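Worked problem 6 (solution included).
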Amino acid sequence: MDGPSIESSNLTRDGCAASSHAEVCWVFSLARCGCSIVAYAAAAPWQVPVADEPFGPWDRTGEPYNYPPEQDELRRLYWDVDEHITPQVANLATRLFDKIAGRAGRVVSKHPHDMIKPEEFARHLPEHKAVFLLRNPLKRLNSLYVRGWLKSIGPNHDLPRFKLVAQRWLDHPHRFTFEQFRADAPSFFGAVWEAWGWSFTDDNVARALDYCNNNYHASSAKLGTRNPARPLSEKKNALPVEAVELYLSDPFIVELMESNGWSTDRNEYV
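Solution. The predicted structure is:
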């Protein structure tokens, strides 16, 4: 099968004329769930640009992103309307995605936040495709503590936010876990591309794996120097005991962890 190309970006899968706008494929997640490496590696085989948290609270028109000025306009507008996707927000986002995509004709949008409401996404961006990525909640929380990202941790050790996003993950038709990525990256990327409607070859898979093996995303687009095979979050446990006990006493979390084969033994996290 042939990979995505500029020529094919204006056709649907059945060969009919498609929208003149860029094709936008999303990775929804939470911070420290692996969405950076997944988004960038999935886009790498075709050098598809990545829109890295364009709805986030930061101006990313400078280094290392260098996004068009519409990104700063978009995040200001989005936050001015209390984090809702309105027709105006959707139109501005479309202009931004078109510019970031450029000649590639498509863009991968990474969104490790709980801000975008699924119903608003479906209503105002119906042509966009998405996958949802989740991670063992205690491994994910440990990553935040190890890095000292305490301002990113919400009340009750971020449990309410994780449960909100985990329910969205359960409701999504194309859901994956970071652990699946680590266990079988070739099959993982194939499934992600299929969810986006991208054709791919073994060479595309090899290029994605090459990206994973040679890049460590310390933070978003910022690359670190650690061994990609051993993330910092797996080097040591930094979780407070009360955080572990809080998560493992929540029936929703316990059921989620057990259904995904994630250990509920507190001794593995303390």
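Discussion: DSSP finds eleven helices and seven strands in the chain.
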